Amino acid sequence: MTLPHKIAHRLQVSGRVLAASLAGVLLQSAVAVPVRDLAVVAGARDNQLSGFGLVVGLAGDGDKDPVYTQQTIANLLVRYGLNVPASTLSSKNVAVVLVTADIPAFVKPGARLDVQAASMGDAKSLQGGVLLQTPLLGADGHVYAVAQGPLAVGGFSVGTSGGGGASVTKNHPTVGTIINGALVEREIPATILHDQCIELLLREPSFISAARMAEAINLTFTNAAQALDSTSVKVRVPDGLAERLVDFIASLEALEVTPDTPARIIINERTGTIVATSTIRISHCAVSQGNLTLTVSNTPEVSQPNPLSSGKTTVTPRTQTKVSEQKTGIVSLPELPTVEKVAATLNTLGVTPRDMMAIFQAMKQAGALQAELIVR
What we know:
Distance between the termini: 66 Å
Number of helices: 7
Strand content: 25-35%
Structural class: alpha+beta
Largest sheet: 6 strands, antiparallel, barrel
Helix content: 10-25%
Order of helices and strands: HEHEEHEEEEEEEEHEEHEEEEEEEEHHEE
Low-confidence stretches: 1-29
Radius of gyration: 33 Å
Strand order of the largest sheet: 3-4-5-10-7-6
């Protein structure tokens, strides 16, 4: 073998080794996720239920005699053979609540659901209350479950509100939960098989994730899956497995797929929270951030009239305004290919989360931030 051929052979071998090494690094860094965590089967969805009910036993913390609460109590008493005028009733121990629950697909009658009850009136607290039997209706107006039981509030409110009164409130005492508080009375019909096919709906739409999911399914079930769009993957049930649909779907959900993670930064200015994915990149740019602080203070001053004069003592405010600006130079940032380097570099600048939000927005406008910026 001549020298040029030897050099070419070595370059080919080195290239193969480098490609294999890079492939190994990518496989190690990629995180495979089961299909069940990425998608749901079309038709096997939850449904929302709601109902209007009464919570009793509130020891004076209930509604302050609104008309709808009194009328609801009167309607309840009619069911027990008591006809009492609504205006004569007191609702101090009763609160009108809206009861909500989610019922999954294929839940059979007799199963239990968790429910939440939230006060609709001016009740002070639902602590210690018991929800009376409340029908839970679906969007079609049919009753699918019935809720009843004692509420778990997880908070309290004590004391007297208003002028001169002190009160202490922990958590949110006007919303409560009843674990297994609803009894399912009717199953919601659900159909997941259409023309010998099922459809998987991605929780996070992505063309890359949909294509990867279809490819992973086809490796196990040949030519069974097709990505229709960024959200849907259509899967044909193989011959002989239509009668064993549960086993087939279980096999699909157990398959592992490497999802696509978009480059995205979420900024919540109300809470000062910043969340970024690991794929964000920042191009070479220069940053200068200075804090401008404006302070306005009012100091009351007393103006006294001259002796034996008819003037009156008055209080006048004295306003002082102070402006301070932090002096900072321009910092040159190199290209930052990972979120770890981005965070470390911005932290060295000593900026606050609020300043970091402004920097990210300015970088996006300058075209240096290679990621989607979402401001809440």
